[in-house]
Model the fold of this input.
Amino acid sequence: MKFTLPKSILTEVIGKIGRLMSSKPDIPVLRGIHVLVQENCIVFTISDGTESLIHTVPVSVDNGVIVLDCGASVFSKDAFNISKKLKGDITFEVDGSKLTVSQNKTSLEFSTIEADEYPKLAIENTTRAITFEGKDFEDIVKKTAYCASDSQARPILTGVNMNFGEINSFVCTDSHRLAKVQLGSSTEEMNITVPANLLEHAIKSFDLTQSVLVFPSSSQIALANGKTILTSRLLEGNYPDTNRLIPTEFKGELIVQRQELVDTLELLSSMSETGVIKLKVNSLFIELSAVSTISKGLNEIAYESWTGQDGFTISLSSKYLLHAINAFSSNSVKLEFVESMRPFIVTPVTDQEVNEVHLILPVRS
Amino acid sequence: MKFTLPKSILTEVIGKIGRLMSSKPDIPVLRGIHVLVQENCIVFTISDGTESLIHTVPVSVDNGVIVLDCGASVFSKDAFNISKKLKGDITFEVDGSKLTVSQNKTSLEFSTIEADEYPKLAIENTTRAITFEGKDFEDIVKKTAYCASDSQARPILTGVNMNFGEINSFVCTDSHRLAKVQLGSSTEEMNITVPANLLEHAIKSFDLTQSVLVFPSSSQIALANGKTILTSRLLEGNYPDTNRLIPTEFKGELIVQRQELVDTLELLSSMSETGVIKLKVNSLFIELSAVSTISKGLNEIAYESWTGQDGFTISLSSKYLLHAINAFSSNSVKLEFVESMRPFIVTPVTDQEVNEVHLILPVRS
Done:
């Protein structure tokens, strides 16, 4: 097996596989990168045992990739990390279990692992694919995945529930807050829960000017973007029914400048150990305050409109509210309240149709 | 006590005191910042118990600093870290043990510590000052302090020895390598050993377009730059006599492109767990190699000149050689060898007079 990559292509490959390179899987062979050299393409596969990424580099005169001898091998991460310091065209040659990386007068030798020892990636056959514009896919992920639970106490809550059908809907909750986005429709009906991590990794490593194809199967999901495929197991179990959680009738609607609210929440959250903020709506302005054992912060900001009662007060997690409104791009945001101890709703204020809703439970104070 | 700082001045103050703010001194009061407000200036003092920094802000119409009420207090680090998120002109007012930081509609309250509890900084009176151009001071530090020992086994080796006299000389060694710079002369004779950390902190926080004044006394050093003073204890004990260590006769002089040597050392050092590199000078080129249990690296680079024997071989720490030549700005470097097991000398190749020498002990291989 022997092939030559220009430095720019090696950098591209490392860019794609790089995040998974920092993982330390239990199975030693998974600490390497499977390299399959074929006449028309070179396929790099990396896995952390849960998530796998397959990146294909075509062989062409245009991109300068040359295949001199086909074959398969498993390279160490060092082979990539150290070779990327070379310049120009870099040649990789495997002889037995020895990989020689050479460029001009430099030669680096690494040991390899037999390709046979690398676990087969069982990608389930599926013909069903749902296609998203890269931008839409990013939007769905950014507006839902932030609500996923970090804890493995209820594994299903570490995922984003995707319901494909007449209206595709994407829901995520950690039981303290919830986000829901509705976008497009599918001819097929399907309900799957995808690890939020996988989705966040996808938007980091994908080229979002290109479309994203989602291939769901009974236990697995594959996300394809350009020449990159990311796969993972689906989360098992029933996702909680969240429809009844979202209130539809409100007693007060508050519209406020988004950036002003962000700045105030960021300032005051550092004044309280718990990050809990008290929000009080007066007849003329909003009073936001935070108290800790040793400090106290207070800020008044103006609102654009308020339909509720004077003096309405609610205590909330500044972190949760910031997570929600940081995902918005609108100039103003709308907060809709029922009562001080009932969940409230946050949405962006925009001319376009709003297809998302963010729900936050208040804090007992 | 009450004063107003424009945000730009607050940012400047935090920039100066910032590094010491990350320290966690054992004495609680030292975790705060002493603020002394006088009619014509505000003095900020911070200390980690060993090193202290005093920064003075003048009160003037030009810089927008306003003093409304004089006094002294100790502010918490949070008071600075959180207040820097405010914009515009920020007012600090102390009433009893309560500090209120306010700007427009925002008010933040912090508790303070009595100024009396803050230890007095005993700055010894000294009239002797040695003045350096900022650039020269930076040069001395960069070219010596890198050789200081990290270990407290022999505390004196954690410092840079400064010998002022007919020729000022600055020496630093951790017993594996040594750097020596000679620059200027002093009318007074003095020999002090200054913590290398202090010097490295100084070049980071000082404005090096301005001069640096060194005030040594029997047990202390103060470094003054603009409106900032940095002080520390001197290291006690006799600095080892290093003059006999530096060889003066050599059997081989090698001149090589600096950047090419840097690139090769950086590449090969990652191929060996120990960072040890074997350097072999052939009749036509230099062969550099590194070996680990699982990998092997080899590179050939050309030299500009070589006066020694064909096949001369030496094993060395790539880290130590990189530290030395990374401090150079010359295009070429000169390595002078006696024997494979004797220390060798590294110097920059330049048209100007060379006032520095870097010595490295080889590695037994």
